Amino acid sequence: MVKKLHLLVLLLTVMLPHQAAAVTVTSTAGKLADVVTNHDVTELVINGTLDARDFKFISDELTKIKSLNLSNATIKAYKSDVDDGLYLGGYSYADNTLPYCALTGIITLQTLYLPNNLVAIDYGALAGCSALQSISFPSSLETIGDDAFNSCNALSSVQITHFINRLGSKAFAHCAKLASVLINPSVPLEIGNEAFADCPLLSSVRIGPKVTSIGDGAFTACFALKDIVVWNGSQLASIGDEAFYNSGLKRINFDAMPLVKHLGAWALARTKLQNVSVPSHIKSLDQGTFFYSKSLSRIELPRTLSYLPDYMLAGCDNINGTSFMTQNLGSIGDYAIYNQSQHTSIGIPFRVYYIGTQAMAGMTGLQEITSEPLAVPELGDDVWAGINKQEVNLYVNEQSLNNYKAAEQWMDFIIGKAHLRGDINSDGFVNTADAVAECQYLVDGYTQGIDVSVTDVSGDGEENVADVVSIYNIINGTVPIDAPVRYYFDDLIDGNGVTAGLNAVKLGILLENTRNYTAFQLNIVTPQGVSINGVALADRDIGHEIYLKEESSNNYMVMGFSPAGDDIAGYEGAIFTLNISSSRPIGLNEKIQLNEINFVDSQENVYRRHARYLNIIGMTAVEDIDADVDAGLVDVYNTQGQLLRKGVERDQATQGLAPGIYIVGGKKEIVR
User: What is the CATH number of domain 486-671?
Assistant: First the structure.
């Protein structure tokens, strides 16, 4: 029985394939074949030197190689001739460079350790190495050539760091399992054309500050890519044609790319983008930028944009509104908003002079168009193809009615008189007279010569200083993209009172703001016997105008704005001063109440909060505008953290205390 077992073991040993052990050799350039005699080797460590001829030997003869360690090897230059059988005859292969197509198509290679002194990886050096699972680049590497790792289907992650200054075209294209990419070199780097094209599982891309451009088609057909992370201090200056074409991209933050001036043709076409804001530092867009990005529901374009390029928003049929029609548009390109079928109405800005071929074709949901230009815009062919124009209202300026009715393509609509947004006095123009009329209406209730039905210029459902800002934005050609948004006003607002006798006070209203504001409006309620008899602008207001209106006894409205649309200067200090008088002495803890605090930025966004209280004499800092700091009991501490009073009413918290700074209910308060 024992003999039979020994015989079985012997037979199995003979029958099983021979597993070659790892081989370590020291080579001289061009002589690797002399020291590697076992062509079935699966693991090979090479020391010494080698050149392009040795890589051809590895590629042709070592058909079972799985692991290749070149860490301590040096690649030497070699000038081939036509008889070498290399990929390129008569080619000069450089020192410290993985040669042209050196290991192309070795489908068994799983692990590769590159030389520690490697400077460059030449064209296609590892293309088609479909089993290569990972790659680590030495710190000496400077160049990754075109197609270097094309179709390396087992690679899952890549880190491009150190001194790599060139990433070639299609360097990592068609890598089927590549999921994560970090590109963070310490020197400027351009991402080559189609560098990561058709990497369907690529979901994580992080781009360091030294990357200067994203090449044409760099991430096209990367279906799993939802977002790209661009680090602070980015030097990224350009995004090429089709850079993210047909990718899964849902978000892109252009604010993190302040040097980008241009978006290439079809750069974001057929993506999954949902909400896009293109800031003003991007000066131009090319054709088809967002073509058939069917998930796109909102887009904000630079206010300076004068041309809507061909095909740019064609097929983006989830956009329903006119947010992309900026007031500086002069022309609308061919097929620019083709097949945006969800629109029920659309506005054509007053500077538009040309609308291209089929620019609005297929907009089958249209019910009305407002065309602001006085001169009828020229048209390309079949601008509204597929639309039943006999069922669509076209509203135009009264002065232009007959011209539109006589113009080809325009004449087929149901044409009527339009009302221009901001034309408060209905004279057919939007100018300073409308701003004055709006202001008179808001401050004095003056309605003569005003169409009250259109005084809500900002479209926020209310009539306030935002409407004045809206009119001046129209006049200045800086109309914002969208209707105003409601925000809670969360900046610091203080009152700084200076006593001038017992019954007269100048009360400065201070603003420590984190945002830029151009206008403000608030209501003020004073105690009985206390009145406001004047208001003055502070030094922070640049070209602003200010108005005070007594709406009822002890109830006032203050409104300030800039006709030029200038922001309030600086970020702290007084914005206006109230002159307060009283028929009796004003108590140290008497307060005025600020109601309906509204600040408006140049985009007509309204920041608001109700009911704040400020001491008339002295200063009370209100640090949390979202909470009513006057409600409930408070504790009082000095600046050394000692508890002075516990659980007292706020109105009595500092009564009798010596002048100084105290912490009342967690807020700073000054007693004078």
Answer: 2.60.40.680
